[in-house]
């Protein structure tokens, strides 16, 4: 069974991520196959649009193949570096694709799943969508262009999403600029049908509906105030003084890797000043490459994915112990 399936019908090149038992998580073979097909379809006059979805009913994609990265990190290998290099090339290709690239962001869309969807031209969410960058919870930093996307959300919403590693709804994703259209999940078959006989924009005009209100937008006042601080320590201080919702966010952040939190905040602030996705992806590659060499990343994956004890032993264990030298190493 192919981990990614490719099908061309009625001028639509369809990519279906096909590892439903692994929540369609991306492996290197899937990334390479997507690169090959997207390049071929770009030059094919018979292809007028591309659509990506996920097999099964749980979501588009829960991220990269974390188990494979864990084994590579523990063995001191370099397979993950090759995977990331090709994955980030794929993210950039999607962002520059000359034909409509539709992403059905139904169900779970996490990490690498954001990378193969949120850089597309037509990003579709449903009432079931849960979109997020959960990396700080495993001692890692948002990648696949995640720091580019999150640094360009309204106000400080992206900083909140990145540091808490929380998942947001479809309407929240639209508000944050990570998605464009809301289609109820029961109407996805109608959309697929409309795409066979209508241009992309016309099909979406026929089927898409106004998105429900974004809950995150309603929290913008305290989020913008708390996360505008220059350090993670000051952000937490403001959150603890900011009411119940803010204090809950503080508790979520305090469970994450102190190192990953500080590196993520610097990466976001830096990404906001970088000119384009390509330069941000280059920065993310440097960060990812360094993360692979740290015990922090492997420990985070062990606690959340391998042993599932949810009790990572972070080192350094506190924010005050994470000095500039440790953070600088991720950007060198």
From TrEMBL:
Its EC number is 3.1.2.4. GO terms for biological process: L-valine catabolic process. It comes from the Bacteria. Residues 12-331 form the Enoyl-CoA hydratase/isomerase domain. The lineage of its organism: Bacteria, Bacillati, Actinomycetota, Actinomycetes, Pseudonocardiales. The keyword Phosphoprotein does not apply. It catalyses: 3-hydroxy-2-methylpropanoyl-CoA + H2O = 3-hydroxy-2-methylpropanoate + CoA + H(+). NCBIfam families: PRK05617.1. GO terms for cellular component: cytosol. SUPFAM superfamilies: ClpP/crotonase. The keyword Oxidoreductase does not apply. GO terms for molecular function: 3-hydroxyisobutyryl-CoA hydrolase activity. It is an enzyme of class 3 (hydrolase). It holds the Pfam family ECH_2. Keywords: Hydrolase. This is 3-hydroxyisobutyryl-CoA hydrolase.
């Amino acid at each position: 069974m192919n981990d990614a399936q490719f099908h061309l019908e009625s001028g639509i090149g369809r990519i279906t991520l096909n590892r439903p038992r692994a929540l369609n998580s991306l492996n290197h073979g899937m990334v390479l196959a997507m690169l090959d097909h997207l390049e071929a379809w770009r030059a094919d006059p018979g292809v007028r649009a591309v659509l990506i979805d996920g097999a099964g009913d749980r979501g588009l994609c829960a991220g990269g193949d974390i188990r494979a990265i864990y084994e590579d990190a523990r063995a001191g290998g370099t397979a993950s570096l090759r995977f990331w290099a090709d994955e980030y090339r794929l993210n950039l290709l999607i962002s520059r694709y000359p034909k409509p690239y539709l992403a059905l962001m139904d169900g779970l869309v996490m990490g690498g799943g954001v990378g193969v969807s949120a850089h597309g031209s037509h990003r579709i969410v449903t009432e079931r969508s849960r979109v997020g960058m959960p990396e700080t919870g495993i001692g890692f930093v948002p990648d696949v262009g995640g720091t580019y996307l999150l640094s360009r959300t309204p106000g400080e919403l992206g900083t909140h999403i990145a540091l808490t590693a929380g998942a947001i709804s479809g309407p929240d994703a639209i508000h944050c600029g990570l998605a464009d259209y809301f289609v109820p999940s029961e109407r996805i078959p109608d959309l697929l049908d409309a795409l066979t006989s209508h241009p992309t924009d016309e099909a979406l005009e026929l089927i898409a509906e106004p998105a429900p209100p974004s809950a995150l937008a309603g929290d913008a006042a305290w989020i913008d105030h708390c996360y505008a601080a220059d350090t993670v320590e000051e952000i937490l201080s403001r959150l603890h003084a900011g009411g119940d919702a803010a204090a809950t966010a503080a508790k979520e952040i305090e469970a994450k890797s102190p190192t990953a939190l500080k590196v993520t905040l610097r990466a976001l602030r830096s990404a906001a000043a970088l000119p384009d996705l390509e330069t941000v992806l280059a920065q993310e590659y440097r960060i990812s490459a360094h993360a692979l060499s740290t015990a922090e990343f492997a420990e985070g994956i062990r606690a959340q994915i391998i042993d599932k004890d949810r009790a990572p032993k972070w080192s350094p264990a506190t924010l005050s112990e994470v000095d500039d030298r440790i953070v600088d190493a991720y950007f060198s």
